[in-house]
Design brief:
The protein has twelve helices and seven strands. It is of the alpha/beta class. Strands 3-2-1-4-5-7-6 form a seven-stranded mixed sheet, with helices on both faces.
């Protein structure tokens, strides 16, 4: 599995789970809330482009999802195109954008723009997409953006700019942050630059909060000819779990409880721990939610499975024993065995026991 295949797999799983949540994790609860968030992003883009854009421009959205920003932009431009690595996102975009025949969407590799001819677009923009991509993928996209932009074309770039941060290449949702000198060099290497000096962001002094989600306007300064034959090596650890991914699945489950949908939260957590059995806090949250909803036997079964998989996880063992004692009078004939698990497998001796 290479980077493109990993991005496709992960983002299709997220889109199948709940596309709106994975596009706008704070503004997904209803279609109205989701739509308003798209309008806000579209307005921010238009404000950043004030005095520059024309309705006749052809526009490309990289990482369009189901078309959250494309829909409100449809009344401002004559032709818009959206691309996404997820076939599930694109399938849903067809319905979301069905009223706008001048807006089209396509599934791509998530790494290039080879679908489009040279100098096809006056404007390329991307919002909360590049920050999730490995650095080599961003580098290739910048070269491709140069190729598809017209000579006077612009890139509206949203990217966390501040202290350097990175995550493993297998992580398809973790946030990458770029120091200003790094992003300036990457832009110049690919025939691009900030539109004017005042657009160059300052370094953030807060390492936990890089530059906000504003758009930075980038201009094309000269044409380059990027190579389109890049071969991506197979990933060494394609099953690597992203801490942010796990956290967001748990967040969704907690939100389900708040919205009065605990069973949906339980199903989300069950899917999460079965896909990543090493996510220990997910098991504990699953058991707790099962208990909260009166599903005591299921909670016991979940804790038994956790302690079987991770016999050296002390918090799991202690929680299981407490639960057994508390429930013994309720299920005297059906309580799972209380036998203490001993670690005899050398692999278990080295397993990571801290929750993600």
């Amino acid at each position: 599995m290479n980077v493109s295949e990993k991005m496709k797999r992960d983002w299709n799983q997220r889109a199948q789970h709940h596309a709106r949540f994975w596009i706008a994790t704070e503004n997904y609860q209803t279609e109205e809330v989701f739509t308003q968030s798209g309008q806000g992003t579209a307005q921010a883009l238009l404000e950043a482009l004030k005095g520059l854009f024309q309705p006749s421009w052809k526009v490309l959205d990289i990482g369009c999802g189901i078309g959250r920003v494309l829909k409100p932009l449809a009344k401002h431009f004559d032709a818009l195109v959206g691309i996404d690595v997820s076939s599930t996102m694109i399938a849903q975009s067809k319905e979301w954008l069905s009223e706008y025949p001048h807006v089209t969407t396509f599934e791509t590799s998530g790494m290039d723009l080879r679908k489009f001819q040279d100098q096809s677009f006056n404007l390329v923009y991307s919002y909360v997409a590049f920050q999730h991509m490995p650095r080599p993928v961003l580098e290739q996209y910048l070269a491709e953006i140069n190729r598809v932009l017209t000579p006077q074309g612009y890139l509206a770039l949203q990217l966390p700019i501040g202290p350097y941060s990175d995550v493993p290449i297998e992580d398809t949702i973790g946030i990458r942050s770029y120091p200003i000198q790094e992003i300036k060099q990457k832009l110049r290497n690919n025939g691009l630059d900030f539109f004017k000096a005042t657009d160059v962001p300052q370094l953030s002094t807060d390492s936990n909060q890089p530059t906000d989600h504003r758009f930075h306007i980038i201009k094309k300064i000269h044409t380059i000819k990027p190579a389109l034959t890049v071969e991506w090596a197979q990933l060494e650890n394609p099953q690597h779990p992203s801490p942010l991914d796990m956290h967001l699945y748990e967040t969704y489950a907690d939100n389900c409880v708040k919205l009065g949908k605990p069973q949906e939260g339980i199903q989300t957590l069950q899917s999460l721990v079965h896909r990543n059995p090493a996510h220990l806090s997910g098991w504990l949250r699953l058991a707790a939610l099962l208990l909260e909803t009166g599903q005591v036997q299921q909670a016991l079964s979940a804790m038994k499975e956790l302690t079987t998989l991770h016999p050296r996880y002390q918090e799991g063992q202690a929680t299981f024993q407490k639960l057994l004692k508390k429930c013994a009078h309720l299920y005297p004939h059906t309580i799972p065995s209380t036998k203490t698990h001993k670690c005899t497998d050398s692999a278990h001796k080295q397993e990571e026991l801290n929750p993600v």
